[in-house]
Amino acid sequence: MGRSITVHLPPAITPALSGLPAAAPTFTGRDDQVRDLLQSLAPPATTPGPATPTPGVTGLGGVGKTELAVQVAAQALRQPGWFPGGVLFVDMFGYDSERRLSPENALDQMLRALGMPGEHIPADLQALTRLYRSVLDAFAEQGRRLLIVIDNASDHSQAAPLLPTDGVNRALVTSRETLGLLGARFLELGVLDVPDATALLHRALTVARPTDSRVADRPDDAAAIARLCGGLPLALQITAALLAEDPARPLAAMADDLQDEHCRLDELSYVDTAVRAAFDLSYRRLPAEEARLFRLLPVNPGPDISTAATAALVQGKHAVVRRRLEALARSHLIERGSVYGRWRMHDLVRLFADELSSDATDSTEASGRGPAFTSLLDHYQTTARAASAHLDPTADCSTGNSFPSRDEALEWLDGEYPNLSAAAFAARNAGRTASARDLPLILERFLDWRRHFHHSITLQTMALEAAQELNDDYGQIRALNALGSALREVRRVQEAVTAHRRAARMCHEADDQFGEAVALANLGNSLQAARQFEEAVTVLEAATRLFQELGQVYSYGMAMGSLGNALSHVRRFEEAIHAHALAARICKDQGDRHGEGMMLGNLGNSLRRVGRFEEALEAHREDVRIAGELGDRGGGRAWTNLGLALEQAERFDEAVTALERSLELLRDTDDRHGQSVALGSLGNVLFQMGRTDEAVSSHRQSAEICRDLSDRHGEATAMTNLASALRRSGEFEEAVTLCRPAAQAFRELADQPGEGIALNNLGFALDELGRWEESISVRQRAIQLFGDLGDSKNEGAAVTCLAMALVHLGRFKEAIVALQPAVQFSRRLADRHGEGMLLGHLADALREEDRLEEAVSVGRATVRVFRELGDRDNEGAALTNLGIALGRSHRLEEAVTACTSAHQIFRENGDHLNEEKVLLILGLLGAGG
Fold first, then answer.
1. N or C: the chain end with fewer CB closer than 10 Å?
2. Are 673 and 714 a contacting pair, CB within 8 Å?
3. Residue 7 DSSP one-character state
4. Strand duo 273-274 + 185-188: pairing
5. What SS3 state is found at 344?
């Protein structure tokens, strides 16, 4: 039976504070955690109530749990009235088998520190606990609140007896374990980020030697060290000690020494302190099966691992493996991942586990690593194949597939992709050539779907090399097709063409008609990217014929979509529209929503090229809707196409919204080429809205991206657009500087429309600078180009500008020759205002050449056009010029009538300057007033 205990406290207790270690001056980067812990230790605002959860700190060995507890305790003691009774600090040495402190011994020490005479201290744990808590109660009653820091407890039984239960005194516990049964509120302490880790390194060096400026002088090298230490405070402190010991040692040399993974843990050791030893204390406590699992986890080469993959790795049951992983996480030898069921290791812990596994035996296979890796590769390949099948419109996933839906398949692929790619490279390095070939090929559709094109190039190059080593022609063809498609998407188009030609040749030599058709379809797409459109049409027509002969309906539809794009580029728009509509219908019938959206986007582009804007908008909106429905990261291109159509339909506000959304998606997927196109389109819209500075910025960004991608055509397009915006800003010299190389690039790329537009822009800039002779030469080349293309609109614009330049130089005969066809162009385009302006210039030129009767006739036509348009200002100007021509023809009465009508118009419009000018002319005609 228990008995009552009456405790008489000594008048002064001095030992309590003496046990708290000194707070380190290098402490940094834990402001949020310090604030949270202090808040949990603050005295209650009201009278004591039920005990609140004890705060605790848990985390990996070496992460700084003890230092955080000491810093918090020191700050708490400095708060007035928080802990007037002082602090008790006890290191339980929970992970040191030789120094581990039992709760009985800990309680004995603490009672003595609290002033209890040794002869009154019992030996029994229950009695010790009762006495200890009675003493704490007495301190509480006297207003002498205590803080008890229980450091390095390894389990619930070691810490629980030391916790106060009076609701006044507080404890702070640290442990590498998550002590779930302790009833504590644990703070999971992570590693430091690079800035904080660098700050710790700097502080530690300057504490040792205040003049040490190595971190400040070489911040990049310091950041490299911080990363190589994985942000682990213990590793950083050891590194700082090594650097402080040798002030001449450059940080770069330290980083180089840490770079070698095989020696990194050897480097992270100083006297009797080592990172390896800190980890070993936790490892030694593991049961055999958990220890084996821990040793095998580094076999997975990726950044984290799922429970399912771990079960495959160790060939164990899912539930059993899950429980073992949970136990390792409680010991903080591994960490829980960002989502449930995923696990990761700190880099240094991974090296430690890898060492243990490698040292287990001289034979890698005998240690279990080889079979474990084989099992893991089998799991990744089998599961990735099942998931990727959901991205193949021709695959039947209704039965026998482990993923119920495409969404779940994509979710798995997204989560495992870093592991899958790492596994492929690890397989290559381990001589598992078949896996190095198969994993990239299995991932081909996923890499395309998620637009991981740069990664795809690396992986498919490896697959191609592996297939060559295996003498596997089929594998080589698949890898070449996948590689070529990825190269095309990052604008390495000539390499893409080479890869697809090689694949087509291999299929032809092997009499593989289907494979040849696939390779030809891919080749056609790459030829278009290389702007070899005529050859692309020929190649794609051959591909569609082969698919049709083989009865491959879906592949035929996809090839028809590509053919439609090529036909559009060679201005065979009606054929292109037919091809796109057919392709979209086939994709819809085959249930390929992704392909249907892509074909509708292509259809919209062709409809836009022939001015059928409403139909184009309908197609593009459906493409956008499908991309959103599928969660397709290629949806950025769909939004770009919609923005282009809205621009041409002059719905500029909607176009800006669409293009800004496009850029968000394209940046999310790091689609640099897509970004350049969207930025160029956005710049054009902003220009038309009068937002010139924003337009200039967009075009500059577009040009910069194209330059980075070595996309000459895209860069030339961006430079041409930028020049237009700069002209409006008055930056004529820069516009000239941009247009010349743009026109040259278009010429070398055989893009006649692009060259013509660049030359027209160059001419405009030269006109503004008064460089008429240069402008005339440029316009003549542009007229020739647009004439060859049958582009009446742009040809007319070039002819008009040529005529204006000739007029400015007083070369009126040549101007008349240029202006006459320009008038006809305007009439064909139903541009009445343009027609009137050109007729006016023609009348002036005829008058200057003394062809007065023609000048009068053309002048009357000019007046007629502006009168019909209701353009009173230009009608007045035309009447004035007509009056001058009539006056020079000595038809004074008609001249006076024309000028009087002009005077009346200017007076009505309040145009005093022109009113005065006409009065002067009337005075010269003898009809002043």
1. N
2. yes
3. -
4. unpaired
5. strand
